[in-house]
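note to self: the first set is below, dont mix up w the second
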Amino acid sequence: MTTTTMAEVTLPDGRAVVGPSGPELLGLWAEITGDSPLAVTAGELAAGDTVLDVGAHAGLSSVYVAGRRPGLRIIGFEPAPSTYDCLAENFARHVPGGTAVRYALGAAAGDRPFVFHPYLSSNSTLYADEADEAGNREAFFANTGTDPATREAIRSLQAVSQQTSVPVTTLTGVLGGGDIDEVALLKIDVERGELAVLDGLDESCWPRIRRILAEVHDLDGRLATVVARLRRHGMRVRTHQAPMYAGGSVHTVLAARP
């Protein structure tokens, strides 16, 4: 995999962060802040809580949550080496006591093929699906009024990909270390790998998960499958689709114990 040069940008709140692409970072930050599901969920956390950020990318979600609620224990998982380097740097700058881990999470431990998009790295995934990517991209364009030149540029950037192999572990493996009694927030954003992440959580570990915030791609009834599983494990569940993704497969699932 070609190493991606770190770009540094200053966020609206004045903090400087790094990532593979400056414009991508600012776009992701805009999705995270305001009245987003993550912003609402962050307000429910307290000092001492443990947060697992699965599919952390450059760590902006963790940076945001750490800024909202000091004293959290945050562990971020990102398998792509160059993006992981950005995650580790942002944790060092803005997530006191945070831990960056260069692993993907899935249904079983091992090494897996991984598709890395160097110019739109947040789309990188273990589960490539060009049709789904195109559908969500075009829905985003239509909903946001993206101009034709920008549309073509983004299509060209998204078409560039590299194949690599990354290490995978499971949620059960992470929780088996013995030093995590409870997960206050399990955040999942893994581009069609969300069900596999949940498949890697043994029945005995489910009671230790207090909240889940997951991006779910509703392919082949996956949204209903995820919602049913969370309810079966005693969680109250809400779903949300951001207006920018209307007509696409991307939904957000918020689940919490009563």
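second set (the one i keep forgetting abt)
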Amino acid sequence: MSVERDVIHMSKQPWTKEKMNKWIRERGQGTGKDYVPWTKIIDFPSMGRATRIFGVKIPRIYHLQSDGQLRCFLIFEWCDAVVDIRESFPMLNILETIDDKDDLRLDKFRDKETGVPLVLTTSFLLTVRDDSGKERLLARSVKNASELKRSTTIENLEIQRRYWRAKGVEWKLITDKQIPKQFAKNIAWVRETLLDDGMDANQKAEQARLLHDDLIRHSDLKLNDVLNAFDHREGVSQGTALYLFRYLIAKKLIRIDMNQSVQVARKVKDILQ
């Protein structure tokens, strides 16, 4: 991935001061559903692993630039303490913000054709709320470990570290080796049930309640047997109970070990926590 793609939009049009100022007015602004990320998937026409995903906690489309970012997004969204997620957050006014910048190679981060400074971004700016209701910001940069071999990436990360330190915001680097992949996979598996599926919300909640009762009542049975019996008894299509089981997990009405794949051949009591 080139420096430009790492920090800024890559289109065929040149990066000019006019375009930068236009983006500053239009992007990286707002919070919640009104936030507009600095970089969007449309800005990366040839980027193979970019993903757009609709948020469950905040109802808007998120633009994620790698598998690592997608997995981190899923985990952040799952966390009850996280109340807002702003991806591709621009670090504006770097020169004015960072005092100790004499040893930084900011000259590396300019458009090769126009010489206009590139706008660096942090993968995620999170708003977290503690038990007392107090909110604070956390900045997280997500990189593949292989990217850390590049001097430009290291320079980029050091700029981020100093920028957020000057802002009084905790910043950390997350590599793909640190991300619990099965945890993220399980979240993706269950969160689909929280999106609009055409099913009546009240009916879904009521059927899920019935299944919950079955799981508690028949905890000595295999999960697959409980699910199949539910489908047969309720006269619903095969797989409905499994869908509702995923829904119960997504709503956190039942808990499982999210770091392990669900084995339906196991007994219910060995799956539920």
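remember for set 2: The radius of gyration is 22 Å.
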